[in-house]
Amino acid sequence: MSKKAIVFDIQRASLHDGPGIRTTIFLKGCPLNCLWCHNPEATSAHRQLFFHFDKCTQCGDCEKVCKEGVTHFNDGKHTIDYHKCKFCGKCVDACNFNALKITGTEMSIEEVMLEIMADVDFYTNSGGGMTLSGGEPLMHFSFSLELLKKCKEMCVNTCVETSGFVSTIQFNQILPYVDLLLFDYKVTGTSDYMNFTGVPNKLILENLDIAYHHGVPIILRCPIIPGINDTDLHFKGIHALNEEYPNLIGIEILPYHTMGNNKRTSIGSEETLTHLKTVPPEVSDKWIELLKNLGCEKAKIG
Amino acid sequence: MQKIDDFSMELNFTETYRRNINEHIAIREARCHQAQFPAVLTEIQDNDRLAGRTFWGWVGFSPHNAPNGAAYGYFCHEQKIIEAIERGNIPLEQRDGVHELLHFWKKETSKAKVEAAFTEKMLPVLFRDEIVSLPYNFKPLIANPIYRMAGVFVDYEKLLRLGIPGLKTEITEYMEKSKASGGDYKLYEGMLIALDVFTESCRHYEKQALEKAQITNDPKRAKELFQLVKVLKKITVSKPESFYEALQLSWLYTLICGSLELGRVDVYLGDFYVNDIDNGIITEKEALSLMHSYWRLINELFRDVDGRVIIGGRGRRNEANADRFALLVLETMRTYGRAILPQTTLRFYEGMNPELMEKSISLIGDGHTFPLLYNDDVLVSGVAAAHDVPVEDAEQYMPLGCGEIVIDHMGFGTPSGSLNVLKALDVTLRNGVDHISDKQLGLQTGHLKDFKTFDEFFDAFKEQLAFFIEILADHEELEYLESGKQAPYLYLSILYDDCIARGKAIFSGGIKYLGGSLESFGSVNTADSLTAIKKMVFDEKLISAEGLLEALNNNFVGFEKEHKLLKECPKYGNDDKYADDMMVELHDYMCNTIRDQRDRTNLDWYLNVLINNKQNTILGRWVGASADGRKAGREMANANTPAGGNDKKGVTALINSLVKPSHAIHAGTVQNMRFGRDFFTNDRTKFEVILHTYFKKGGAQAMITVINRGDLENALVEPEKHQDLFVRIGGFSARYIDLPRDVQYEILSRVTY
Hints:
The complex is a heterodimer of chains A (302) and B (753). In chain A, 33% of the residues lie in helices and 23% in strands. By secondary structure, chain A is an alpha/beta fold. The two termini of chain A are 38 Å apart. Chain A folds into two domains: 4-44 and 107-301, Aldolase class I (TIM Barrel), CATH 3.20.20.70; 48-103, Alpha-Beta Plaits (2-Layer Sandwich). In chain B, strands 5, 11, 12, 15, 16 and 17 form a six-stranded mixed β-sheet that branches. A five-stranded mixed β-sheet of chain B has the order 6-7-8-19-18. At the A-B interface, strand 1 and helix 4 of A face helix 24, helix 28 and helix 30 of B.
């Protein structure tokens, strides 16, 4: 029996998740809960009902077919009890305006490999390959391990984008099949890490150290959120890591953008950081300048 | 200024034709050329370095739509003449004559001769009397005849090798031989008169240039004009020796013979250019100045769908020199700035001087919509197979206008008909009846509900397609036959293999290959519709046959559920086997059935072309809602490109789909790809890899536009600020803001990567 995992997206012709032209596999589920997450629908490891409120015409067709009492129309307002949903998909079929979907599809290793191998000529010619992302892909440890092994069997370059929050034993097993790690470094300082991401940073820093000494090429990926981690402390923290690990092959700054925020309400969560706007390039350019002045020559916008 | 309501040329032309109506057709045509040239040649403009501009009359002779909408051969532009009559400005003494010539040409134009010869089978399908000229085709037709002899690529190498005097010598020798053996020598006599007309035209411009040189106050301009006088004098008395002379001769011949294509300029001009540069006869700057004048003339005189300047590729005898000239062409494009014409075309193969491709990609990235890219590693063998010609002839393939492939000065293949494939499917659902005009347009093959299996239905559709294809093939054959009977097309016959040697005119057995092509439109929507019908009606039975027709008849209004189901069916362009297999089956059937027509006709080839111009939009107006979810009257997908917005899985999946239909069975497809400027500027290496991989995987052709969606949206709001925004719609480039609004929306709806 092939292993399966919940995939919430497969992006072909992906240009910015590692070298060359790539296919990025997004697995659903993440142990972290970062305030700024731009893929909030990837937090839960389960399938979820997803509602595009702006597409809804209030026709009421979904209410008629739902046996679980998930959708209601009261006073011209369409409300959803997300927790009642059993993912039967009847409301999705009933909606003529594609306002409802179920995010997350269970896929086997074979199915995912089929999609990956379709673009193998593009990988060969561009030095690209497969990128495993999420959520936190290593949450699905055995699926990820097997998928990475399969890719290596087929000579497909592999890249893993991870928060690093994974058991060290499992992380060690993954490393031999990874050509490049896109390793998140989100916040500097133990308590802030906990406050903003929901998890402690000890394990993450240990894993970074393990990966580095294992010799896997690493690009550090740092989301920068105004008012949260655009601090001297954090930029110095990034610099410190660069000093400690001089062979990091890159440091990418990911400036905050708001494009993920309305997805929160679509899955029944509260919006976060509603006061923030997408960071304009002149601000993010300053961050790069600052990092370069500190000595992080390799810092650039990711 | 041209006095548009002075009909002296038209009256003289008509009178000449009538006087010679019973003469040998070669003599008649030659004398008509005398009436036409230099009368329709217009003045050298202030910045012209080359002589040769035209303002065709409303009556005349030309292979290809000289004034737009005038058809071809002996033409009479009724609409323009009637407009002039209604303006009331025609000189009194000409009025009776003008009224009378309208009557005379009604039965005498080349188009009228073809229509008069329609067979019983053609009459009800081709609607002889109801054809309204494009782009305003108000008739919801499936098979549309097209009247033109498009795609003239004369033997420029021979022209420049022999010059006018050398050609005359050769023709005279053949004429003497023919006379001695009692053959039909009149064709040669006509050719000689035609060349005299050409020489007269050179002298006409020589005189004009001299006059202008003498009166100008600008010493620099005077010097240029005196130089032009010398060049023009030289080409009347001898073969060209300098680059300037070669360029002038080839340009004027192009114009007078009525061609709208420039052909393999790097081959026929390369040696002259290199010789002049290497021997200090001309400077790079001077050569570039001449090229700018050439570019400007092409831009001002030709239309957006024509004007192919072709560089690069296999089969160039002087490759090193040709490459150097090709680089001059690219430099001309760069320095001239973005322009709609010429349609510069780069043919390339692995191993060719990489500088040509590198420079071309830079131009594309800078927003020039050219060059168009043609992959010889796929196309040479593809043309050899499809056209059934030896590889050395296939190496001389030339994409004309919108992309129909013919063979340089050996093979003609004018597209003489278009087929609206989606409309053919539309009537197949309804027992051959068009529900818009309530006419029986197709065969009575049954209603959708009558078919038990999808295969039965598909077979009925194939039967319908074959019916229209046969009629269009017969029409192509008829068009050549009637054209040949009426005129030898002297300027073409002089420079097409093997007319002089055989003593026969181009369309009367003289040309080496007489081919043809059929423009098909709407194949992608058709394939996607077939996929949806198969899946929804026959396999999954989620929609009944009656339900589908009702939904289509109501343009999906009140049938949102059906519309959603149909839209969600697999679509071509996403590397999805279900949808792509259907496209391949349709493509194979269409191409092979069209290709088989050469067994029914005397054509050396007859091939499908999946090119595009504006017709996907224009013909789409008369197609009702289709089963792929397209709404009534909306544009059909362009050429071989997925329907707007349907390629959702990114450019790699798109490419994987694009390379599935075979290239060895048709005469040209167009593959539109748009890349956002960011993609191009920030990820140029990746862009190049994608392109390279596409070609390695068997991609034959690419038309790449680099723009971003924001550009287009802004242009809709503030058109005056976006006049420099050019887009390519398959066969031609256009200023975006000049396009009809629905065409603008259609372009906008295509995905930008």
